[in-house]
Amino acid sequence: MIGVGKMKQYSNVLDKPLSKGKQEVSLTAFAFLFSELVQYNQTQVDNIAELERRLEDAGYAVGSRVLELLCNREKGNRRETRLLGILSFVHSTVWKVLFGKVADSLEKGTEHEDEYMISEKELLVNRFISIPKDMGTFNCGAFVAGIVKGVLDNAGFPAVVTAHFVPIEGQQRPRTTILIKFADEVLKREARLSQ
Amino acid sequence: MDTNDSLRVASLWHSMHAISQQLSPVNGCSGIELLEADTFDLHCFQSLPGTKFFVVCEPGTPHMESLLRYIYELYTDYVLKNPFYEIEMPIRCELFDINLTQAVQSDRVALLGR
């Protein structure tokens, strides 16, 4: 019978339930789009620090939206209030949804209390990118750092997030580390909550 | 062979390829694919947009066509998706070089013989 099982017609687009979304996207399409993003920003800036900032801003926009979406879709509208909670949320859920796998590792910094590091052997966004020698320490992972910053800021954990290359013995390509440095108020609040 | 020599050889080959396309007695010819000489073989692969990849090897080396096809894949991956590469410039992409040297080592070439 035609019509059986047809979707309910919603009069208002706001009443429609949020879809699960397409689970898979072409890696090539993303690679070309990201490459264009970097090239476009390169034409707008004079130096590398500006370029990194622009990529971070682009990622920030993604991060804030991803947080809202994932809180609704994956966690049933629960909010994270603890530091370790939000960090493991970023490390597993956000990474899994964005890059298809959880991040390689999450570590606490040894030198400072407010530093945490998410490491990845090779960031998905950097997979096809070779940085020319004259660009020094520039890392297109600044985009991913921006995403993490967006998620953390909007969840109530202001932080400074940067992406770094860390050379490893015996491996040709350095691994990438996202360094997260939380603001003082976050640590104070965490200390209060732990009592 | 330094960059200037490579550029000279490549431009020479480009002209020869174009001339051979015109001279061919067969209709619809797409240009030279294999050049056999006494001391070397030259295999050429032309992609759909017209970029030519050629490899100079010892006479009788097998599986050069699949090697060229694999190199084309590497080109589309590590060169075209690199935001710091300008089209038509000499290729200075680290990832492309690393994967290319890996592919050219003899055991890899044997594996590519499909």
Walkthrough of the structure:
The complex is a heterodimer of chains A (195) and B (114). In chain A, strands 1-2-4-3 form a 4-stranded antiparallel sheet. Chain A has a single domain (27-194), classed as 2-Layer Sandwich (Muramoyl-pentapeptide Carboxypeptidase, domain 2), CATH 3.30.1380. Chain A is built from 5 helices and 4 strands. Chain A is an alpha+beta fold. In chain B, strands 1-2-3 form a 3-stranded antiparallel sheet. The longest helix of chain B is centred in the first third of the chain and has 21 residues, at 3-23. In chain B, a hairpin with a 4-residue loop joins strand 1 (34-36) and strand 2. With 114 residues, chain B is an alpha+beta fold. The model of chain B has no long low-confidence stretch (mean pLDDT 84). Classes of the chains: A alpha+beta (195), B alpha+beta (114). The interface between A and B is medium-sized, with 18 and 13 residues. Chain A: Keywords: Endoplasmic reticulum, ER-Golgi transport, Golgi apparatus, Transport. Chain A: It holds the Pfam family TRAPP.
What count of domains describes the coordinates of chain A?
A: 1
With strands numbered from the N-terminus, the spatial order across the biggest sheet of chain B is 1-2-3
Q: Can you count the helices of chain B?
A: 4
Low-confidence segments of chain B:
none
Helix content bin of chain B: 40-55%
Beta strands of chain B, count: 3
Give the strand order of the largest sheet of chain A, numbering strands 1, 2, ... along the chain: 1-2-4-3
Q: What is the terminal-to-terminal distance of chain A?
A: 64 Å
Helix and strand content put the structural class of chain B at alpha+beta
- As a percent range, the share of helical residues of chain A equals 40-55%
Radius of gyration of CA atoms of chain A, rounded to a whole number: 19 Å
Shape of chain A: globular
Tertiary shape of chain B? globular
Instruction: Classify the fold: give the CATH topology of chain A.
Output: Muramoyl-pentapeptide Carboxypeptidase, domain 2
CATH class call of chain A: Alpha Beta
Note the total helix count of chain A: 5
Question: Strand-and-helix sequence of chain A, N→C?
Answer: HHHEEHEEH
- Shape-level CATH architecture of chain A: 2-Layer Sandwich
Query: If interface size is counted as residues with C-beta under 8 Å from the partner's C-beta, which chains form the largest one?
Result: A-B, 18 and 13 residues
InterPro entries (chain A): NO_sig/Golgi_transp_ligand-bd, TRAPP-I_su5, TRAPP_component
GO cellular component, one term (chain A): TRAPPIII protein complex
Subunit structure (chain A): Part of the multisubunit TRAPP (transport protein particle) complex.
Family (chain A): Belongs to the TRAPP small subunits family. BET3 subfamily.
